[in-house]
Amino acid sequence: MSEVRYAERLKNMQGNVIREILKLTQQPDIISFAGGLPSPDSFPAEILADIAREVILDQRDILQYGTTEGYQPLREFIADWVKGIGIKASYDEVMITSGSQQGIDLIAKAMIDEGDTAVMESPTYLAAIQILKTYQANFAVAHGDHQGVWVDELEQIIARENPKLAYLVPTFQNPTGITLSVERRQAIGAMLTRYNTVLVEDDPYGRLSFTDEIMPAIKAYDQSERVVYLGSFSKIVSPGLRLGFAVGEKSILRKMVIGKQGTDVHTNNLSQAMVYEFCRRGHLGPHIASIREQYGHKLKTMQGCLSLLPAQIKWTKPTGGLFIWGELPEGMDAAKLLTAALKEKVAFIPGESFYVEGGHRNTLRVNFSNATPDNIREGFRRLARAIENYE
Ligand SMILES: Cc1ncc(COP(=O)(O)O)c(C=O)c1O
Questions:
Q1: What is the mean pLDDT of residues 59-64?
Q2: What pTM value is reported for the model?
């Protein structure tokens, strides 16, 4: 039989490395710091179960088709909620997406033709790289430090390459946990007025701060109307509900809505109505506060365990989110270390795949939200043994 004739755009695409590693870590005796999973005991199951029954019985129209833009009461709630991070928007500048992952896909679908340039941080969210590769983008990469991306370098790239899109995860970044400083957010907001580049501000972790500080969005400083802010309920309610949102200028959202019509018609009405009711009844704030406390404790536990590992490993020091990021001594290979770690029944994600340009084989991402504090301690004892056995 002759070969199936796949599209050019998927020819060189591999499956998501993390999803492949997650398959290896499914056995119950493995302590996994690999995924970006919320803690299962953080899910507000009882409340959601009651709400689900009520909304299905009381609002029969959620069983009907809905609008592509999303459930209007939820859009109104979000328009009000994002004021807390400095974004001024009306409900018709908000669209609901099936997770923020879909937001990335829809903006790429709306904007990227083969060969168009997108600027990414280095390292950055693996799935965003994958999505943009699917749309056959060219990449430019901007570097940074413990305060996030260097604005000068980002501006030089934008001035030189005239990219259609820039993509940043400014708060408790995946994979590094790094947060962009307020000064740099302001500078990026000002800089965008000088160019014709749309910035995708992907922010699934911003509310998961373990200090009193909630960072203002870059979009709060945007006068160009070129920032599309992506939010998500995955890490603050439940990822299985697949609920996210995009906030942006109406004509950009309109293109994303047209793209979404072809993708899934609209986001699941039941998820939208459930999360809206969860928020309307005042559960969201207290629920986020309890997750912040729980994850803050787990991060502290993990940071306490870092001394079990060789002091030459450099770690980021996040104050929120789900991840810390390590740099092994030059020459060490995190993928090889993972093989040794899996023998000890502990897992993490090697960092290479978070780099558009590859390399950086001595880096690794470690998740602290999913394991219990006891398992974090045991996992680090195992990791220490894996490093001892590394050859
Ligand atoms: C930076 C970033 N963006 C988007 C997503 C996708 O999240 P969602 O579940 O909202 O689609 C994730 C998930 O881990 C993420 O880390």
A1: 93
A2: 0.96
| DSSP letter, residue 245 | E
pLDDT for 23 equals: 79
- Asked if 217 contacts 184 with a C-beta cutoff of 8 angstroms, the reply is no
Residue carrying the six token digits 């060789």: 310
DSSP string, 34-85: -S-PPPGGGS-HHHHHHHHHHHHHH-GGGGS---TT--HHHHHHHHHHGGGG
CB distance 232 to ligand 1 below 6 Å = yes
Q: Whose CA is nearest to atom 14 of ligand 1?
A: 36
- A 10 A CB-CB count for 316 gives 18
Q: Is residue 292 a contact partner of residue 209, using CB atoms and an 8 Å limit?
A: yes
Please, what is the Cα angle at 263 between 54 and 169, to 5 degrees? 85
Would you state the torsion angle of the CA atoms of residues 293, 294, 299, 300, taken in this order, to the nearest 10 degrees? 70
Nearest Cα residue to 143 out of 121, 170, 161: 121
CB 42 within 8 A of CB 286: no
Cβ–ligand 1 contact at 120 (below 6 Å): no
Per-residue pLDDT tens digits for 72-121: 999 999 999 999 999 999 999 999 999 999 999 999 999 999 999 999 99
Q: Are strands 31-32 and 346-347 parallel, antiparallel or unpaired?
A: parallel
User: Is the preceding omega at residue 175 within 30 degrees of 0, hence cis?
Assistant: yes
Ligand 1 centroid – CA 79 distance (Å): 20
What separation in Å is there between the alpha carbon of 215 and the centre of ligand 1?
Answer: 18
Question: For residue 144, is pLDDT > 90?
Answer: yes
Q: Is 269 in the pocket of ligand 1 (CB under 6 A)?
A: no
